[in-house]
Specification:
44% of the residues lie in helices and 20% in strands. By secondary structure, it is of the alpha/beta class.
């Protein structure tokens, strides 16, 4: 039975919902109302850093000329960037740019900020992973494979951090191939690359786009692609699947906000990034740096499902490998 008290409570509830919806609508209409920070959960010069800095002027234009600062926070596999985002204001002015490292470090227990504290806005990149070497040392994968088989335990492969996409790619390759290799973590893709070029390590597992300039200069070369089919730009480079290894996972790059950011604002931000993704300028960039081999775009809710599924996968892999 509806009483006056029930009606009063219901009316108050509807009024509060209306106020909340009005506040959210105002937040979208007023966005941005202050300077914006792009927190990059990685070091300078890597794929996530390049992603954030390429998107920055496009985002500034899309939201009406906001002032944006890019801040690199690579410490603890990027966990500091996630903590700052989760501890900041839920108003969409702090955007967390992260790679698959977010979920791999979560699976490894190195990242205390879960999906209950961050909301994915969108994924914009799915980069192809590869095994890279200095071509003066290893002209092709067969020479690398032969050396690794003849020298068990002596091959060292570098990458960014432990429990990163680089590390997971290494573990996957080591487990599938049966090669006795060791992983050495570095704080950035640039440092791992420098150590390959300096002869301190044999190879690095990382994604294609950050090393494009090294490839073009002839300093670094992919010798094994984590893919089902050979890539158009690298027709002579074999794939993992060719060798009977079902290793095709890539490195995602996405944007996150505080979990309490109003849903209307999250949807607005997703729309902004989708518009940027579809633009001729962004697509030209993606093609230029070999990011067009796989579909990059994924909306926030769909990407959340992918993260949850990958969390289970990476948890098992990292539990079995060191």
């Amino acid at each position: 039975m509806l009483t006056k008290k029930t009606l009063k409570t219901a009316t108050l509830g509807l009024a509060l919902v209306g106020v909340a919806m009005g506040a959210s609508a105002n937040e979208v209409a007023d966005y941005p109302s202050k300077p914006i920070q792009f927190l990059v959960a990685a070091g300078a010069g890597g794929g996530v850093d390049n992603f954030a800095r390429v998107v920055r002027p496009m985002f500034e234009e899309a939201v009406g000329g906001a002032r944006i600062t890019v801040v690199n926070l690579p410490s603890a596999s990027g966990a500091l960037a996630h903590q700052r985002t989760a501890n900041g204001a839920p108003d969409g002015h702090t955007l967390d740019f992260a790679s698959t490292t977010y979920v791999t470090s979560l699976a490894a227990g190195q990242n205390p900020i879960g999906l209950d504290q961050l909301t994915p806005v969108a994924r914009m990149q799915s980069d192809v992973m590869a095994l890279f070497v200095n071509p003066e040392r290893y002209p092709d994968f067969e020479s690398f494979l032969e050396y690794a088989q003849e020298n068990p335990g002596k091959v060292t492969v570098g990458g960014t951090h432990t429990a990163s996409p680089d590390h997971v790619a290494f573990l996957s390759l080591r487990d599938a191939s049966g090669l006795d290799m060791n992983f050495i973590p570095y704080d950035s893709t640039g440092n791992a690359t420098a150590n390959v070029l300096g002869g301190n390590i044999d190879a690095t597992t990382t994604s294609l786009s950050p090393l494009l300039s090294y490839i073009e200069a002839g300093q670094m070369m992919p010798i094994l692609i984590f893919s089902e089919e050979r890539l158009d730009h690298y027709p002579d480079v074999p794939t993992t699947v060719e060798h009977g290894w079902d290793l095709t996972d890539g490195n995602d790059r996405a944007v996150f906000v505080h979990a309490d950011t109003p849903a209307e604002l999250v949807q607005h931000l997703e729309g902004v990034f989708q518009e940027i993704f579809a633009s001729e300028e962004y697509q030209a960039y993606a093609e230029r740096v070999n990011l067009d081999y796989r579909e990059g775009w994924m909306g926030g809710e769909e990407y959340r499902q992918r993260l949850e599924n990958n969390y289970e996968l990476y948890s098992r892999l990292l539990q079995n490998g060191n």
